[in-house]
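User: Earlier you gave me the apo prediction for this protein. Now I'd like the version with zinc ion bound, so I can compare the two side by side. Same sequence as before, with the ligand SMILES added.
Assistant: Got it. Here's the input I'm using:
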Amino acid sequence: MSKIDFDLPEAKKTFWHTSSHILAQAVKRLYPEAKLAIGPAIDSGFYYDFDLEKPFSPEDLEAIEKEMAKITKENLKLRRFTLPRDEAQKLMQEKNEPYKLELIGDIAEGEEISFYEQGEFVDLCAGPHLDYASSVKAFKLTGATGAYWRGSEKNKMLTRVYGISYPDRASLEKHLADLEEAKKRDHNKLGRELEYFTTVDYIGQGLPIMMPKGAKVLQILQRFVEDEEEKRGYMLTKTPFMAKNDLYRISGHWDHYRDGMFILGDEKDEDVLALRPMTCPFQFQVYLSKMRSYRDLPMRFNETAYLFRNEASGEMHGLIRMRQFTLSEGHIACRADQLEAEFAGCLDLAKFMLKTLGLDGEVSYRFSKWDENNKEKYIGSAEEWERVQGKMRGILDGLSIDYYEADGEAAFYGPKLDIQIKNVHGKEDTLITLQIDFQLASRFGMEYVDSDGSKKHPYVIHRSSIGCYERTLALLIEKYAGALPAWLSPTQVKILPIGSAQHDYAYALRDKMQSLGIRAETDDRNEKIGYKIREAQTDKVPYMLVVGDKEVEAGTVSVRSRKKGELGAVNSGDFIKELLIEIHSKQI
Ligand SMILES: [Zn+2]
Ligand SMILES: [Zn+2]
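And here is the structure of the complex with zinc ion:
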C-alpha cells in the first residue's frame, strides 16, 4: 500500500480495520479463552472488544503488541470466504464465539455471510481488508477501557482495546508526538492549570467560572470587538436575557428550537418566560421602534450577548460547548441592492478578527444549506430557499471564497456561511457564522418605505465578528499553548525585585506602566529570584523585568522576553516605549 493511498479516508479505514484483525489474532494466541466481539476502524485508529476473565494490564498490552509484531512478519495473506448460514453458525459454535453467533443472527436472510482468514485466525467480517497483514508496519496499542456489548448497560461489560497503526514507523512516531502535544495544549487542561477558568460540580455542567485571567482576556477581546464594530458603523444595543414565549412563537424558535431553550416554568403557561438562545428577535425591536425609510438602510446593530442553550450533557466540553456563553452578535437590516456589499463587509470584519488573533490560517468555509428532504425543520417555501441559496452562492462566488457545501446545516430561517475551525484534537467546530435571512423580517413585520413609496421587507444578515468569546479563548489557549501574544496576555509584565532594597523602584515602575495601560505586576515576595523567574515562566508572562541594585542605580531593567530570551539591561523608558508599540500594533 502506498503512502498516498493511506491518506484517503476509505483506505485508512481498511488499513485500521485490518489492524484490528491482527490485534484479535494476537489476543487469541495469548488468551485462547477470550471471546471476540467487534473490531471496527474509527476516526483515530481502531479497537477490538473482547470478553475476558479480567481486563488487560499495561503489561498485557505490551505482550499483545509483541505478538502483533510477530504476526506482521509471518507473511500472512488475508483470504475471504463465504458460508451458508448453518455452516457459518457451526464454525462459530466450534470456535466457541457466542458474540459472533449473535452477529450472524443479525445478518438478513439472503445476505452473504463472509469470513476472513489469516493463518490460523478466522473472523466473521464484511471486510474490506488489506491483502497482507505485513503491510501494517507500525502500530501502537493506545489503551484499554470497559465497553458494554452493543453499547447497552443491560449487557455484559467487555474489554475494549484501542490502537493506531501506520504503513511506516516515522508516521506513527509523528502521530504519537502530535497526540502528546495536543494533550498538553488542550484548553480544558491547560486553561485550568493556568487558572483561566474552572468548573464546579454543584453549579452544573457547561457553566464554567471565568477566573480573573480568563475574564481579563474576554474583556480585552470584547473591547477590541466593540471598538472595531463601532469604526465600521455598528450601533450597540443591550437587550433582555429572557422573554415571554410570545416572542419565540413569532420568531419560530418555539416550534423549531424549543428543546434547545431553558424555559422558566411550565411551558404551557400563557406568559411563561424563556432564556434567549439568540438575540435576533430582541434586537429587531430596535428596528421596529419606528417606521424606517430606504435612506435609513443599512442599519447595523451589535451586542455582546449572553446566550443560553440547553445542550445535552454528553455534548459539553470545556469552553467549546457550554450552556451559557457570550456571543459577539449582530444583525444588519439592508435593502436587496445592499445585500452583497453588506455581506462582504461582515466577511471582511470576521477575517480581520481572525487575522489579528492569528487564527486565520486554520479556518475553512462551509456553505450550509437546508435539507430539502427534511422540509419540516425549516420555515419558508422551497422556492424561497432555492432563490436565497442561489443568491448566497452568487455572493460567495463573487467574493472568491473557497467554500464547501453542506446540506442540512442551515439555520431554520436561512442559509449560512460557517467559518469552521479545528481544535487541538482535530475536531471541527463553527467559530463564526454569517447568515442571510429572508423570513424573520416578514414574520416580525419589519418594513421600510422605499423610494417609490412602497413598503418592503429588508433583508437581515445575522452575523458574528469573533463568534463565541469563550470558544475563541479556548482556541487561543490551544493555538499558543497558553503563551498568548502580549496584547492578549492577562499579565504583560512581571517586575521581579531581587530583594526588598529594590521594592520602591519596582513599585514606581509598576505604577508608571499601569498608568500607561500596561498590565504590570510586582512579585515582592521574600523568595529567591530563581524561584520567581521560574514561576513567571510557568505562568507564560511575556516579559519579566529583574531589578537589582545595579538596575536601580542606572535606571534600567534586566529584560527576559518569553519569545527572545535574555535581553540584558535596557533603559526602563525605552522598554516601555517598545512594549507599547508591540501592544498597540497587536503583534502576534
Ligand atoms: Zn474485518
Ligand atoms: Zn440572529
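For your comparison, keep in mind: The longest helix spans residues 9-30.
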